[in-house]
Write a structure and sequence with these properties.
The chain is an alpha/beta fold. The chain is about 30% helix and about 20% strand. The protein has a domain at about 5-100 and about 165-265: Rossmann fold. It has helices spanning about 60-65, 105-110, 110-115, 120-135, 150-160, 180-195, 205-215, 245-260, and strands spanning about 15-25, 30-40, 45-50, 75-80, 80, 90-95, 165-170, 200-205, 215-220, 225-230.
């Protein structure tokens, strides 16, 4: 079995539908509603940021998309198939890396194919190709402890992408990094996503991060999280650091700040965007 980056270079699958989803957590007197009546879709190959204040249910939604949490009401589907549990088709990257410290970088990345029975030469060849794509060519024999935080997250992304997922789920993956490394990793992610345009749902509470990365920003209210705005971004690609100083970027940042400051009873209904997004 051969695995090549070119096999996953064109994304034609990975449509996500979130249909009137509510999720409750806890039991008995401790039960509470984390998210309420979420309704939006993500097109194949689209990069959508889910943005909201801490505790609004962003990570809860991501956990449900990963198949780790059941929904209370509504339905989650990928390519019209209900999400009933975890699946390699939906890879997830967390804020803290989950690399095996006793395995070298190449073996960390090749772990998924190894579990699927892919031969050593094929899986190592695929791992090396993915590592070159994320800018880590030459680090194949290093251990995770020998890498910086940003490099560890690159390995984490590579370890997910080698499984050729339909959907990439990212739970504030750069939140633990310093500001300079975080900015660098945002550009690295966009470079990777341009080469392998996997449908991506990226959770963050950082407005600038969402505006810099996304095709669309889904803004959520405080708990119970609801969609209060679905914003199609007008920025072309590729994107560069100078974008954050442009007037439209600053205007949208101010608009989202104002949305997040409003009390619940004054929040507008979400204006859902059309699904297709043109990339220029």
């Amino acid at each position: 079995m051969n695995i090549r980056v070119s096999d996953i270079s064109t994304q034609t699958v990975g449509r996500i539908d979130v249909r009137h989803v509510s999720i409750s957590l806890g039991e008995g007197a401790d039960a509470f509603e984390a998210v309420r009546d979420l309704h939006f879709a993500v097109a194949p190959g689209e990069l959508v940021c889910v943005l909201g204040p801490s505790g609004c249910g962003k990570s809860t939604l991501l956990g449900a998309l990963a198949g780790h949490l059941p929904v209370t009401r509504g339905q989650l589907t990928v390519d019209d198939q209900p999400i009933l549990g975890p699946n390699p088709d939906r890879g997830i990257v967390f804020q803290q890396h989950t690399l095996f410290p006793w395995k070298r970088v190449r073996d960390n990345v090749a772990f998924g194919p190894k579990m699927r029975g892919v031969g050593k030469a094929d899986r190592h060849g695929a791992a090396d190709e993915i590592l070159r794509l994320v800018g880590l060519g030459g680090f194949e024999r290093f251990y995770p402890s020998q890498l910086s935080g940003g490099m560890q997250q690159r390995v984490e992304i590579a370890r997910v992408l080698i499984n050729q997922p339909r959907v990439l789920l990212m739970d504030e993956p750069f939140g633990a990094l310093d500001a300079q490394t975080r900015s660098m990793m945002q550009e690295v992610l966009l470079d990777i996503w341009t080469k392998i345009p996997t449908t991506t749902v990226f959770v963050t509470h950082d407005i600038e991060e969402a505006l810099f990365l996304a095709d669309r920003v889904v803004v959520m209210s405080a708990r119970p999280g609801r969609v209060i705005e679905d914003i199609v971004l007008p920025f072309g690609r590729p994107r560069h650091a100078e974008l954050v100083t442009e007037s439209e970027f600053v205007r949208l940042k101010r608009q989202i700040l104002n949305l997040l400051k409003r009390p619940d009873d004054s929040l507008p209904l979400a204006r859902l965007s059309p699904l297709g997004v043109n990339r220029t």
